[in-house]
């Protein structure tokens, strides 16, 4: 089969379409013929040599995919050859075929095209596990998501809104209309406005890390919860613990890829139970900025690197 490999690290042009060995599903795994994969911010870091593939996973990027099951490893139950699925992957989605853990599969919702379903697993699992399972966002609470136009942000806005929360999002001004159409009640231009003066949030989903830490604590309501999933604004910060104590607030930080597979299976099972009905009801849908052939992955990386997109950039086969 062919895959979009990384013979070396560097700019987008290092991505190379090359012949590689066909993957073979082990016990508890399925083999998927990939219809589409999606670009995640982490793929850019992996391409630059800053986020290595975990042991046992293919060396090329791709944290999610959609496609058809074409093979079953020993002991797989509940899935059949021919099933249309989308999957959370530790890597390797930029390929014609990929092996996935059977516990990390989700059925393609009836109202979503097979290719478009590739936009769902990573954002659904990340947003569900942080904003809902961990931070416990409730109906009526105020939610703030940074980077509302990102793949993560566009999904978080819709899910929080469908949950009955009030939603604020930071983004470039040109993207505000799109975010309001997705359900954001308040959009904040992070270049010209101070979000901590405009919102008192029960839950914040942050992708900036160090550069926003103090300001995020300012923006928390009493009893607020800040969950950090990205470090686009740096990794080291200082803050006054008393500000956190006075608000009885807490901070968490997580990464999905580093979780043990058993934990990822639990998250996927919760996503299927709690989030998938909202997708099937059309309340939360994949937001696709554009679809490019997988062979044009370098161009797709340039689009994402320039933040020229709203939602997800798909790579199709
Ligand atoms: N920990 C985890 O498990 C996990 C899982 C998935 C993703 N992530 C992280 O979540 C983030 C989003 O991922 P993605 O793939 O969805 O990203 P993406 O689509 O590439 O979007 C990145 C976004 O960052 C926004 N941004 C840049 N500077 C900003 C600032 N100062 N304030 C607010 N927003 C700013 C951009 O907004 P504009 O375009 O509006 O300028 C852009 O929409 C990334 O940091 C990624 O690493 C973490």
Automatic annotation (TrEMBL):
Entries under InterPro entries matching the protein: ADH-like_N (IPR013154), ER (IPR020843), GroES-like_sf (IPR011032), NAD(P)-bd_dom_sf (IPR036291), Quinone_OxRdtase_PIG3 (IPR014189)
Keywords noted in UniProt: NADP, Oxidoreductase
Annotated transmembrane regions: none
Source species, domain of life: Bacteria
Pfam families the UniProt entry points to: ADH_N, ADH_zinc_N_2
GO MF term (any one): oxidoreductase activity, acting on NAD(P)H
Record has Ligase as a keyword: no
Residue span, Enoyl reductase (ER) domain: 10-315
UniProt-recorded name of the protein: Putative PIG3 family NAD(P)H quinone oxidoreductase
């Amino acid at each position: 089969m062919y895959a979009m490999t990384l013979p070396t690290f560097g700019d987008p042009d290092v991505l190379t379409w090359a012949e590689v060995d066909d993957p073979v599903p082990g016990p508890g795994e399925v083999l998927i013929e990939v219809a589409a994969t999606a670009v995640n911010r982490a793929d850019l870091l992996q391409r630059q040599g800053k986020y290595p593939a975990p042991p046992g996973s293919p060396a090329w990027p791709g944290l999610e995919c959609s496609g058809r099951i074409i093979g079953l490893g020993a002991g797989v139950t509940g899935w059949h050859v021919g099933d249309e699925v989308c999957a959370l992957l530790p890597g390797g989605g930029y390929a014609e075929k990929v092996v996935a853990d059977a516990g990390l599969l989700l059925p393609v919702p009836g109202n979503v095209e097979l290719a478009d379903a590739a936009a769902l697993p990573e954002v659904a699992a990340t947003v569900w596990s942080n904003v809902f399972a961990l931070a416990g966002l409730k109906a009526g609470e105020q939610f703030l998501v940074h980077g509302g136009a990102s793949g993560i942000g566009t999904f978080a806005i819709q899910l929080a809104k469908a949950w009955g929360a009030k939603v604020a999002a930071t983004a470039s001004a040109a993207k505000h209309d799109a975010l309001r159409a997705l359900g954001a009640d308040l959009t904040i231009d992070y270049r010209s406005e101070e979000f901590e003066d405009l919102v008192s949030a029960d839950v914040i989903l942050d992708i900036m890390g160090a550069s926003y830490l103090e300001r995020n604590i300012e923006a928390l309501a009493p009893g607020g919860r800040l969950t950090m999933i990205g470090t686009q604004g740096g990794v080291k910060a200082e803050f006054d613990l008393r500000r956190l104590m006075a608000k009885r607030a807490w901070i968490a930080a997580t990464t999905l890829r580093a979780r043990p597979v058993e934990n990822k299976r639990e998250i996927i099972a919760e996503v299927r139970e709690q989030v998938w009905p909202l997708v099937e009801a059309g309340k939360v849908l994949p937001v696709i900025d554009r679809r490019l052939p997988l062979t044009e992955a370098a161009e797709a990386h340039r689009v994402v690197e320039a933040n020229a997109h709203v939602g997800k950039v798909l790579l199709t086969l």
